């Protein structure tokens, strides 16, 4: 069983740590089924602890992957069969199974896995975006030793999918529909726009750059910003956004950006390193930047402050995002609140 400690790497190093574990998929490739373990990972920053399988009390739910709840030092924690949530119905929970207890978006959950393997320290520039939007529960993938892949899971999306089927209200007050399509090759979202032809006051609107690799989260934040009468340019990764911003010509749309809203966990370049690069640029160093992330807690807020962010807010937390925008935008702005 792995032991969770506080990360020792510097803010802006573009490094993070993964807990590795496997989920077993049975494939009927011959006359006899063959079980194939698939390697997955989750960011250590989202994990409070890894525990042995506790006593789980069943509960009534429409989601078969929800095994029930367990007591963790007086707090009820939902227990989720992770392999089943991924569609691998044949992995059995045994007395040797372990539970990865996570906390993000100010919520806790326990993901039951066969066992954890190790903690791996990696650089975000080694992480590739998913090869297809069909992998909606995967935020990134990385080639490791023996030519194997490790897939980084989107635990937020997994919980959102479960709650949508079990009658829950989701993890935020945003109205989230089907995710928008994205172009993972260029880094700029297909729906990126700096103009709204229906508005006569377009030139007076602040232009916001939104950077998030999650189509669902990006769509939600952009819908909020448009509702506040703000114009938007969207990117799916910070590396592409940084390259285009730093090379932007006077008079271009990117040269008119007045504020950046960025995710933290992203392939290629994380949000902290993105902020550090901007603060180190003579051209961009005064740009207001809001980081939004499901990584809640004072430690992450302090890391954002060290990187140079103007604000750090919970991902999809409407109230926090609106307050941060009002504090960062020019006083002359008269958009809707």
UniProtKB/TrEMBL annotation:
Keywords, sorted A to Z: Phosphoprotein
GO biological process, one term: phosphorelay signal transduction system
Start and end residues of each CheW-like domain: 15-164
Residues modified as 4-aspartylphosphate: 263
UniProt-listed PROSITE patterns: CHEW, RESPONSE_REGULATORY
SUPFAM superfamilies linked: CheW-like (SSF50341), CheY-like (SSF52172)
Bias (Low complexity) ranges: 189-203
SMART domains, A to Z: CheW (SM00260), REC (SM00448)
InterPro entries named among the record's database cross-references: CheW-like_dom_sf, CheW-lke_dom, CheY-like_superfamily, Sig_transdc_resp-reg_receiver
UniProt domain Response regulatory: residue ranges: 207-330
Gene3D superfamilies named among the record's database cross-references: 3.40.50.2300, CheA-289, Domain 4, SH3 Domains
Superkingdom classification of source: Bacteria
Region of interest called Disordered, as start-end residue ranges on this chain: 181-204
Designated name of the protein: Response regulator
Organism: Silvanigrella paludirubra
